[in-house]
């Protein structure tokens, strides 16, 4: 029988890689295909239904004409509703508030659906459909939008469209705009030029008459939010800048109005909001509530401020389409806004409602087999019949009160039908690909269950029986069953499944490989099962210590807690509790060793050659007190870190210590804390480095502080002057905004280049706010030369640090390669250990650069806990590889949340993807963002690798079993969660809570696979074990 022998680390890596592929297949089926019409073509005017008419008469089948002549869409990225309708609107947007309260306008709160990121929101605004959650990933590289949309309909109807702003529109709608100028939306450190590049076109464009639709997408407000949050001192001036834009456009549109022409329309809206930390992507109220202000002379003047109505963001698409005389997009689930058409004739209003209802009913028929039973569909058919009866009376010339009352009744029936149908389509969201989901779930579940016995064994190698897999009857039966099942599903599903769209040869190859893998795993698991003929020997059974029970119950308990949406939202509380419990359990072990087992001196003497206290220059007697203090020190650090960043949902909005540190009044304290943290990082890391690496590390950490000073987060000792004066000046200028003293020239009228001439008041205002802001942008070039100013944005400093990071990594990799070529086992082991620690030092330096200034204590505490736990706990208490691995995993998970992360996509800090970059580069941005987000788990996993490598002679199972346990710890919750979301796919919070967590689990599994790859590389010795 042919058997292939693999080390346990290699086998764990292969299992994880298979799991990643299975989870990817599951994700492809789980994230639903958006609700779409079965007809791939676009809506046409010729396809519009005629007006319903009963009895004799001529059918009025002509399409309705446009209601507005010109439309200007002013989209302000991340514009929260309270920025317009709240106190901020009164202070910083007085003109807009005056129009809202007294002008010819309609105001609404438009609710955006998760995910609240730009590209899916643009799709929703232009197509009226609800994009799938997977569009979060597509947001980084937006492909052309092929489905029916408002922009295509306008272009097809001969409308001339001009666009300026976020280049996502240019990628979504290539060759649709008569004129365009896009700016990148991902370089979040720039909040000035991205908006100036839009505004510089306004004066000339508003004077011209050669356009019908003007779209402006301003990014500056969103970028300020990412940099410093919604309460930054930069928010007010930016809102005032947007208020000036509204005033300029409104005045230009009014000047173009003339007798006998249709009125113009100005739309002020936001694509999404922002959280209290300035991020977005989730479904909290500050993220989904956006303002929608429609301004036109066609509307009645307001008598005072009215509470804005609430509607869905997708309702804007059918409203604009009908207002421009265009067909509604086929995939739109929105319903028109009745207030926009309230001054039209009753016949036109009923006609618009009928067109909207017809489009929704067709979409419902295509996506719901039981559409006849839907209340909205039945209501629409009843409303259409009533509409026909009303048309008969209208065409007969009836002018009695009966006609008016009947028309109002029909109007109400249409509105109820539209609401019901839109709600039914929105709830459906899309169709799950159950075939892909079930196959991915079954494969990953079987893989975990059958591979688990190998993980629980104490063998360093795994024997895979290839012959039993490829030449057995079960293998051929599984291949036959899988092929038959695939043919049956694909022929009955009509090719709607992803697996059915793949080439048949590829699918059958996957079936053969999956069957062989399953047979091999079953054979391996059968060998591990106890048989009745064997007599259990002494010591063969498991003995669990109190610590083992804590680790086992904690791991299983956390996995089970994922079935609750509240526990997912507040998962950090689970890990904080488990970490505190672990520290108490370790404290008990320390007390038992040093105080209850003093009479057992044999074991102590056998390890007397190693004494951490002596290594640290202390007396040997103080060692037990340092060991006792280690769990208490860990508890203290964890408690302090919990106060640094509030995360989750329940308390995330409350001020924390991080907010206090980032305020302008406490910048000096933040500077001191950052400097002390960097000094502690150097002291803890340099012990394992060579002299060259120590010098590079010290210079690199100095560069980190210089970078933070360059971007305005911290101060050098000589930079603390003139701060108070600047703040007083800002307050005075803020008062001038309130009293109506406006700038001589708006910031938006400046030319595109930063060194162009400023107006006097605008130049002074920008200088004052740049000095007073506690969160100066991470990249904003300023020059202080008389009337212009410019300051390096940290790019040079960041690249300075990158040089030392690469140098340290190169030194470590060189030692690792030398270790592979060294014949002496002792010398090779020392070189390998030193090389790993130097690579680890380089990673720490890179993380220090990416972490925000107030998070540097988190990194310092992480390294401190690693050092004391390794010196006084893991080495002295002789924990095995499995126990040490589980502890490292728990610490890594806890530090993921200590950083301020959560299971909400909105907490991902994308600004770190641009550290040291002058423009958006996709690959480095993605890598840096992932490294910063998962820095906690990665640092603890890397420390585990370094520790086990340096302690291999003390562990029976060593790196191989540690790798296997690490892979198992990641696989158990991931597989459980895949099964869970399959059963909860129709849960109320499936898209707001469970789906973001699923993406986090998938990404974490992918990163764990990369970590296990490092374990596998380090576990390969020169004996060539396979």
From TrEMBL:
Keyword field: Endoplasmic reticulum, Glycoprotein, GPI-anchor biosynthesis, Membrane, Transferase, Transmembrane, Transmembrane helix
Record-linked Gene3D superfamilies: Alkaline Phosphatase, subunit A (3.40.720.10)
GO molecular function: CP2 mannose-ethanolamine phosphotransferase activity
Domain of life: Eukaryota
Its membrane topology: Multi-pass membrane protein
Transmembrane segments: 434-452, 464-489, 501-526, 668-685, 697-718, 800-817, 837-854, 925-946, 967-986, 998-1018
KW Iron (keyword) present: no
Region (Disordered): 40-61
SUPFAM superfamilies named in the record: Alkaline phosphatase-like (SSF53649)
Family: Belongs to the PIGG/PIGN/PIGO family. PIGG subfamily.
Record protein name field: GPI ethanolamine phosphate transferase 2
Organism: Triplophysa tibetana
């Amino acid at each position: 029988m042919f058997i292939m022998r693999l080390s346990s680390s290699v086998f764990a890596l292969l299992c994880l890689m298979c799991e990643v592929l299975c989870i990817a297949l599951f994700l492809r089926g789980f994230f639903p295909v958006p609700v779409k019409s079965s007809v791939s073509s676009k809506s046409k005017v010729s396809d519009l239904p005629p007006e319903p008419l009963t009895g004799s008469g001529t059918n009025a089948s002509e399409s309705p004409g446009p209601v507005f002549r010109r439309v200007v869409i002013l989209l302000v990225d991340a514009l929260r509703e309270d920025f317009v309708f709240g106190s901020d609107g009164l202070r910083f947007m007085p003109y807009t508030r005056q129009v809202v309260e007294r002008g010819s306008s309609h105001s609404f709160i438009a609710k955006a659906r998760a995910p609240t990121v730009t590209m899916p929101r643009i799709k929703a605004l232009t197509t009226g459909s609800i994009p799938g959650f997977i569009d979060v990933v597509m947001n980084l590289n937006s492909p052309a939008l092929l489905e029916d949309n408002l922009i295509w309909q306008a272009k097809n109807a001969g409308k001339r469209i001009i666009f300026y702003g976020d280049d996502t529109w240019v990628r979504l709608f290539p060759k649709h705009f008569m004129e365009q100028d896009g700016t990148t939306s991902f370089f979040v450190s720039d909040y000035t030029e991205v908006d100036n590049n839009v505004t510089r076109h306004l004066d000339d464009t508003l004077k011209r008459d050669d356009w019908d639709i003007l779209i402006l997408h301003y990014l500056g407000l969103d970028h300020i939010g990412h940099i410093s949050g919604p309460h930054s001192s930069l928010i007010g001036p930016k809102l005032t800048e947007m208020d000036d834009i509204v005033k300029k456009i409104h005045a230009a549109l009014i000047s173009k109005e003339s007798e006998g022409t249709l009125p113009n329309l100005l739309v002020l809206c936001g694509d999404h909001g922002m959280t209290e930390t300035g991020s977005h992507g989730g479904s909290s109220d500050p993220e989904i509530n956006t303002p929608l202000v429609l301004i036109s002379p066609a509307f009645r003047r307001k008598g005072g401020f009215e509470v804005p109505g609430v509607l869905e963001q997708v309702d804007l698409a059918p409203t604009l389409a009908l207002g421009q005389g265009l067909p509604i997009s086929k995939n739109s689930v929105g319903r028109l806004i009745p207030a926009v058409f309230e001054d039209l004739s009753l016949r036109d209003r009923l006609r618009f409602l009928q067109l909207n209802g017809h489009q929704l009913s067709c979409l419902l028929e295509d996506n719901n087999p039981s559409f006849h039973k839907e209340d909205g569909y039945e209501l629409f058919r009843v409303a259409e019949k009533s509409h026909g009866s009303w048309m008969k009376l209208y065409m007969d010339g009836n002018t009695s009160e009966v006609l008016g009352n009947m028309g109002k009744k029909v109007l109400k029936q249409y509105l109820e039908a539209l609401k019901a149908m839109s709600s039914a389509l929105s709830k459906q969201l899309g169709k799950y690909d159950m075939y892909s989901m079930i196959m991915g779930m079954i494969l990953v579940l079987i893989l975990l269950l059958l591979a688990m016995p190998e993980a629980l064994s104490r063998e360093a190698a795994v024997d895979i029986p290839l012959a039993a897999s490829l030449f057995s009857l079960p293998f051929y039966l599984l291949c036959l069953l899988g092929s038959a099942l695939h043919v049956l599903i694909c022929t009955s599903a009509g090719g709607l499944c992803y697996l059915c769209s793949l080439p048949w040869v590829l699918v059958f190859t996957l079936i053969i490989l999956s069957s062989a893998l399953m047979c091999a795993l079953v054979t391996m698991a059968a060998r591990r099962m106890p048989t009745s003929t064997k007599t259990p020997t002494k010591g063969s059974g498991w003995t669990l210590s109190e610590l083992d029970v804590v680790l086992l119950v904690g791991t299983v308990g956390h996995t089970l807690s994922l079935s609750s949406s509240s526990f997912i939202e507040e998962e950090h509380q689970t890990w904080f509790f488990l970490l505190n419990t672990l520290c108490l359990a370790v404290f008990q072990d320390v007390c038992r060793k040093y105080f209850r087992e003093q009479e057992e001196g044999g074991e102590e003497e056998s390890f007397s050659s190693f004494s951490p206290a002596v290594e640290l220059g202390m007396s040997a007697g103080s060692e037990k007190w340092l060991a006792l203090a280690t769990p208490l020190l860990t508890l203290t650090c964890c408690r302090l870190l919990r106060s640094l960043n509030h995360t989750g949902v329940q308390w995330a909005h409350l001020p924390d210590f991080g907010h206090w540190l980032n305020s302008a009044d406490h910048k000096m304290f933040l500077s001191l804390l950052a400097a002390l943290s960097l000094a502690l990082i150097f002291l803890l890391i340099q012990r394992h480095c060579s002299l060259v690496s120590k010098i590079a590390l010290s210079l690199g950490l100095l560069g980190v502080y210089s970078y933070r000073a360059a971007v305005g987060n911290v101060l050098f000792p000589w930079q603390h002057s003139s701060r108070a004066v600047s703040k007083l000046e800002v307050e005075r200028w803020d008062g001038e905004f309130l009293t109506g003293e406006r700038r001589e020239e708006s910031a938006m009228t400046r030319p595109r280049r930063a060194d162009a001439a400023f107006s006097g008041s605008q130049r002074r205002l920008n200088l004052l706010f740049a000095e007073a802001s506690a969160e100066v942008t991470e990249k904003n070039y300023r020059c202080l030369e008389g009337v212009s100013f410019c300051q390096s944005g940290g790019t040079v400093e960041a690249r300075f640090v990158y040089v030392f990071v690469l140098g340290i990594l190169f030194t470590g990799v060189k030692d690792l390669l030398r270790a592979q070529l060294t014949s002496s086992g002792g010398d090779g082991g020392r070189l390998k250990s030193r090389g790993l620690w130097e690579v680890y030092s380089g990673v720490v330096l890179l993380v220090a650069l990416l972490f925000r200034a107030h998070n540097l204590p988190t990194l310092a505490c992480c390294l401190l806990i690693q050092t004391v736990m390794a010196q006084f706990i893991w080495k002295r208490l002789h924990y095995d590889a499995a126990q040490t691995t589980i502890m490292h995993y728990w610490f890594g998970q806890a530090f993921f949340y200590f950083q301020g992360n959560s299971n909400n996509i909105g907490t991902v800090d994308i600004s770190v993807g641009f550290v040291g970059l002058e423009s958006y580069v996709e690959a480095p941005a993605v890598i840096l963002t992932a490294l910063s987000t998962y820095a906690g788990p990665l640092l603890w996993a890397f420390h585990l690798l370094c520790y086990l490598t340096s302690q291999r002679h003390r562990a029976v199972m060593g790196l191989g079993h540690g790798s296997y346990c690490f892979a198992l710890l990641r696989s158990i919750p991931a597989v459980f969660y895949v099964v869970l979301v399959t059963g909860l796919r129709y849960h109320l919070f499936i898209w707001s809570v469970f789906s973001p967590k699923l993406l986090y689990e998938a990404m974490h599994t992918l990163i764990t696979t990369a970590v296990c790859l490092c374990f596998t590389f380090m576990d390969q010795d020169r004996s060539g074990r396979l």
